[in-house]
Write a structure and sequence with these properties.
It contains twelve helices and 23 strands. The protein is of the alpha+beta class. It has two domains: 311 residues, Beta-lactamase, CATH 3.40.710; 119 residues, Lipocalin, CATH 2.40.128. The chain has a nine-stranded antiparallel beta sheet with strand order 3-2-1-13-12-11-10-9-8, sandwiched between helices. Strands 14-15-16-17-18-19-20-21 form an eight-stranded antiparallel β-barrel. Strands 4-7 form a two-stranded antiparallel sheet. A hairpin with a 3-residue loop joins strand 18 and strand 19. Helix 2 packs antiparallel against helix 12 and helix 3 crosses helix 7. The chain starts with a helix and ends with a strand.
Length: 558
């Protein structure tokens, strides 16, 4: 039967009579769109909407969820949403319970002393806990209000202060720092006017690193007399340095007219809802509920204080304080800075050159891990470790801190990340081993006039790479590949270096770590290649030099 006839047969009835056949159109509930949800008895059979069997299967008539109203009514929609929310909450509670089981296992094995953890979901603090004790071998129980030292997690808080002052016009990211500090001097052939806030906060200033857990120098007095020598051409190399953040804090003081710790309290920590957070160690001690750091020695906030380095790593606070800041960061700086300023802090301002393709914003690393874009930073020093991890697109964050140098809370953050988020099941870590045949591009002579002098890199016939510090021990040290351009050598532990590439030519230019930088001066090594030697057996543990390696981050004594 042709299609047109088939349709007609559905609507035309056949009746006898001398008047001939008459077409009769039948009527039923739901014949026209909306009739199963209009409150009217459209076919006159005494039943209407979803109570009429004609509406069975209509979109408006999903199976009833047990309320007293009609099937598919507004209450059913609310019930369905409530059921979905309950299921989601149940999954999250299960994830938190699984995380707490892991935390307990770390304590049972003696890895952790005291630990604080908070998880932020949908932009709001959802879970928080304090476990363990405030001091190795004793102390009082840790709770969610216990104050930890957060070390380099401090840096993005300092960056928030800078961006506030940039918005007000008091600071300029690209202006020479000498505009505000005309008496600042550098040793060497580069003038202090090469330094800008942008270079300081992206770790490209080339200032040598500085770290001291005990000193008496205040920001103003320290930079009044300090005259460091830059380790490379400023602006060409990402190289982690706490001194850059110290100078950043001094600029905050000069621009705001307030001591650094006062400005941070008034304009950043307080407005962010960080009730017990402070850069003032005397205030920490007065509060009584704080942790003692441990790395074989004990560290207290008041005894181990270095005022001129506070902007780089002296933030103290509870996990609830840092979770409050996480809420601000997931809201793109709301209440503290504009979204444009937040994008500077969280953006890919300068590629680090590390194996994970991470970049650095202003105080935060930006990287991808297991298919998700993340922001993060760690802290390490004075017997404490900490980690903050943000997934802004997912409204997720985890903050965690430990008062044991030998327990890295990154494992807690990573586990929370895996439990609470839907990760790409097909994600595989990138291949970071390179063919030793390609290592010839590293061969050459590198000069560091500031710290270690001449460094000669050679490749032996058996494809083993060596570095010789000519002006030091003059001993060849085998370079073991960590990943891509990153290597380490064994000397009083693991010493990590990388062959940093020129941003224009992309050729290896620097032999660098945080404490020295050799600039390449020739492609041919001086002197004979070292003799092949027996490979050193490496036992991978927590690392030497207190340098744990985690995705997207490079940590060390800070």
């Amino acid at each position: 039967m042709p299609f047109s006839l088939a349709v007609m047969a559905l609507f035309v009835g056949c009746g006898g009579g001398s008047g001939g056949d008459t077409a009769v159109l039948e009527n039923w509930e739901g014949r026209f769109p909306g009739e199963c949800d209009d409150g009217a008895d459209n076919d006159g059979d005494g039943a209407y909407d979803c109570n009429d069997s004609d509406c069975d299967g209509a979109p408006d008539c999903a199976p009833d969820t047990g309320d007293s109203g009609p099937t598919g009514d507004t209450a059913d929609t609310a019930d369905t949403a409530a059921a979905a929310a309950a299921a989601l909450q149940a999954r999250r509670d299960a994830a938190w319970e699984a995380l707490m089981e892991d935390v307990q296992e770390w304590f049972d094995h003696g890895y952790a002393v005291g630990l604080g953890v908070a998880v932020v979901l949908d932009g709001e603090v959802a879970y928080a806990v304090g476990e363990g004790v405030t001091q190795y071998g004793g102390g009082i129980p840790v709770d969610v209000d216990t104050v930890f030292r957060w070390n380099s997690v401090s840096k993005f808080h300092t960056a928030l202060a800078v961006m506030q002052l940039v918005e007000s016009g008091a600071l300029d990211l690209e202006a020479p720092v000498t505009d505000l500090l005309p008496d600042l001097t550098l040793t060497g052939n580069q003038g202090s006017d090469v330094l800008t806030l942008h270079r300081l906060m992206t770790m490209t200033s080339a200032l040598p690193d500085a770290w001291d857990t005990q000193c008496s120098g205040e920001l103003e007095s320290y930079w009044q007399f300090a005259s460091p020598e830059l380790m490379a051409e400023s602006g060409t190399l990402f190289n982690y340095t706490n001194a850059a953040w110290s100078l950043t804090g001094r600029l905050i003081e000069e621009a705001s007219g307030q001591p650094f710790i006062d400005y941070m309290q008034d304009q950043v920590l307080g407005p962010a809802g960080m009730a017990s957070a402070t850069f003032d160690v005397d205030e920490v001690v007065a509060g009584l509920n704080y942790t003692f750091g441990y790395d074989g020695d004990f560290y207290t906030p008041d005894i181990h204080d270095c005022p001129y380095l506070r902007p780089a790593g002296w933030l103290h606070g509870s996990v609830l304080d840092l979770a409050s800041m996480a809420e601000v960061m997931l809201a793109r700086g709301a209440g503290l800075v504009s979204t444009d300023s937040f994008d500077h802090i969280a953006g890919r301002m300068f590629t680090t050159g590390f194996s994970d393709d991470s970049a650095y914003g202003y105080g935060l690393y930006n990287f991808e891990y297991k298919g998700i874009s993340l922001l993060g930073h760690n802290g390490a020093g004075a017997g404490h470790r900490s980690f903050v991890l943000f997934a802004p697109e997912l409204g997720f964050a985890v903050v965690t801190a430990s008062n044991n140098e030998y327990f890295d809370p990154f494992v807690v953050a990573e586990r929370a990340f895996e439990l609470f988020l839907d990760l790409d099941p097909d994600w595989e870590p990138p291949q970071t081993a390179t063919d030793p045949d390609s290592w010839a591009e590293y061969v050459g002579t590198y000069e560091d006039p500031v710290n270690v002098g001449t460094i000669v890199v050679t490749l032996a016939e058996d494809q083993k790479l060596y570095a010789r510090f000519v002006d030091g021990s003059d001993t060849e040290r085998r370079l073991y590949q960590y990943a891509n351009d990153e290597f380490f050598y064994l000397f009083n532990g693991y010493n990590y270096i990388r062959f940093a590439r020129d941003p224009v030519s992309e050729e290896p230019r620097f032999f660098a770590n945080r404490y020295f930088v050799g600039d390449r001066v020739g492609s041919d090594p001086e002197g004979p290649a070292p003799n092949p030697r027996e490979q050193v057996r490496m036992i991978v543990g927590q690392g030497a030099e207190r340098e744990l390696r985690v995705p997207g981050l490079k940590t060390g004594p800070e």
